[in-house]
Fold this sequence. Notes:
Layout: E1 2-6, H1 17-20, H2 40-49, E2 54-58, H3 65-78, E3 84-88, H4 97-104, E4 110-114, H5 121-127, H6 136-147, E5 151-154, H7 161-168, E6 176-178, H8 189-203, E7 208-212, H9 224-238, E8 243-245, H10 258-268, H11 274-285
Parallel strand pairs: 1-2, 2-3, 3-4, 4-5, 5-6, 6-7, 7-8
Amino acid sequence: MIDAHHHLWDLEKVSYPWLEAKGVVRFFGDPTPIQRNYLLKEFCENAKVEGFGASVHIQVGAADPIDEAKWIDSVAKSNPDWPLVQVVHCDLTSSTIERDLDLIQEMPSVRGVRQIVGRSSEEDSKSGTNELLSSTAFRNGLIELGKRNLTFDLQLTPELILQASKVMSFAPDTKIVLCHAGSPADRSEHGLEKWSRDLRLLSDMDNIFCKLSGLGMFDHNWTENSIAPIVNECLQQFGPSRCMFGSNFPVDSLYSDYSSLIKAYRKLIPKLVYETVFDKTARDFYKIH
C-alpha cells in the first residue's frame, strides 16, 4: 500500500516559515500541535501498522524549496527499505524554469512538482496564488513538465475549478493529480452539488487524477458518513484507476489518528478496488518501484 500524500519536516535542517510562526491560525486550523519535527520514523510507525510500505512526500512551504528537496532526497537514500519519492515546489512562471527543473531532476527521488494555486479564499487574497491561472508562463510550465515526464499536483479550491480546467486543457500530455479532491470546504447539500458538477470539468480529462486526501482540513469533526459523499463522487467520476489515497499527515493528525483515518477509508472504498486505490494508481502515477 502507498500513502500518496504526506509531509515530513526537520526544523533543524530546513526552515518553514509557517511552522515557525507561533499563534497564527491557518486555513486548516491551529497548527500548534504539529509545529515540531515530524520525521520518517514517526510516519512509518503509524503507516506500517496499517499495511503501507511506500509513500509520496509533498512539498510543504519551505523557505527554500531546494533545501527541502535535497533533504527529502537524502532521507530517501538513507532509507532504502522504505520507497520514498517526492513532489517538489517549483515556480513554473520563473524565467529560469528550464534550469530550475534541470536541478530538480538531478535528484533521483523527484517525480513531480506542486505549485499551489489555491488554499482558501482568505489566504489566497493575500498570497495572490490564484493569479497563476491567468499566467501564460504557468501554462507553458505545465506543458514543460509533460515534456520532461514530470507530474503536477494541483491544489485549488472549488471556485477555481472552471478556470483551472481551461488552463489544464493546454497540457494534455502532463499527468496531473487533484489534491484533496479539490478541497470541498462547503459540505452543505448545495455546496457538494456545485463541487460535484464543477469537478466533472476535471474528471472528463483522462490525464487528470484525484487524491482522496485532506478531507479533514475543512471539517475538523469529520466522520466516515460525512466524507462518504465526497469519496463516492470521486470514485464515480474518476474511476478507481485514477484515484489514490493520501493521509495528508501530519496536517490531518490534527483531527484524527492514522488508524482511524485508514479504518474509515477501508469501509468507504469497495474491497474489489482496494489494491487499485491504495496502491496501483499511485505506483503507476509516481513510478514507485
